[in-house]
Amino acid sequence: MVVSGAGAAGIAVTRILQEAGVGDITVADSKGVVFVGRDDLTDVKQVLALATNVSGHTGTLAAALQGADVFVGVSGGVVAEEAVASMAKDAIVFALANPTPEIHPDVAARYARVVATGRSDYPNQINNVLAFPGVFRGALDVRATSVTEGMKLAAAEALAAVVEDELTEQLIIPSPFDVRVAPAVAEAVAAAARRDGVARLR
């Protein structure tokens, strides 16, 4: 998996993916892959480098995408069509920069089996409005002292479960207007808070 963007969003996405069990994540910023030994990394990116890139990439984002199964873009940069074409068969592309994704959904769909975007005019729109207010509702319901990675992962899994019986390449996540979303997320987040020991109400 390759994540484009090593800012707050990229780091948060990477942590949730690691919590979900993804073991091989390469993160790139505007200067290329974040790796141990790169001499221009901030303290935060040095920690990120230690926790990612088990494949040992040291070059460009495009090079890291060769043979990759999944791309997650939260950078606002541009990914060349050739780089997407070099990904593995049946790849997944989440180009989430909005309003201009890293690669246009129509272009990504030529090569990837599943395409998601931050745009509302294409299928599989990924937007944080899907998580809120459910995350806060669930945290408040149990008076959670913090929001853990487990709670975030539970929210993501709850979102996926909403459309589990309707799942297609064009429908991997519900619409923000789906009335099932907020209650499902809130319930899952509250349960995860109890499991993680941060709930003050049972």
Describe this structure as you would to a colleague.
The protein has 202 residues and is an alpha/beta fold. The protein folds into two domains: 2-117, 3-Layer(aba) Sandwich (Rossmann fold); 128-195, no CATH class. The protein contains eight helices and six strands, in the order βαββααβαβαβααα. The chain has a six-stranded mixed beta sheet with strand order 3-2-1-4-5-6. β4, α4 and β5 form a beta-alpha-beta unit. It is globular, with a radius of gyration of 17 Å.
Secondary structure elements and their pairing?
Elements: E1 2-4, H1 8-19, E2 26-29, E3 32-33, H2 43-51, H3 61-65, E4 70-73, H4 81-85, E5 91-95, H5 105-108, E6 112-117, H6 134-141, H7 149-162, H8 181-195
Parallel strand pairs: 1-2, 1-4, 4-5, 5-6
Antiparallel strand pairs: 2-3
Helix pairs in contact: 1-7, 6-8, 7-8
In short:
Helices cover 36% and strands 12% of the residues. It is α/β, with parallel strands linked by helices and 202 residues long. The longest helix has 15 residues, at 181-195.
Distance between the termini: 37 Å
Mean pLDDT rating: 96
- Helix fraction bin: 25-40%
Q: What oligomeric state do these chains adopt?
A: single chain
Number of helices: 8
Shape: globular
CATH homology superfamily of the largest domain: NAD(P)-binding Rossmann-like Domain
- CATH class of the largest domain equals Alpha Beta
CA-based gyration radius: 17 Å
Order of helices and strands: EHEEHHEHEHEHHH
**Category by helix and strand content:** alpha/beta
Strand content: 5-15%
The structural domain count equals 2
Enumerate the strands of the largest sheet in spatial order, edge to edge or round the barrel.
3-2-1-4-5-6
Largest sheet, in brief, is: 6 strands, mixed
Taking pLDDT < 50 over at least 5 consecutive residues as the criterion, the unreliable ranges are: none
Tally the beta strands. 6
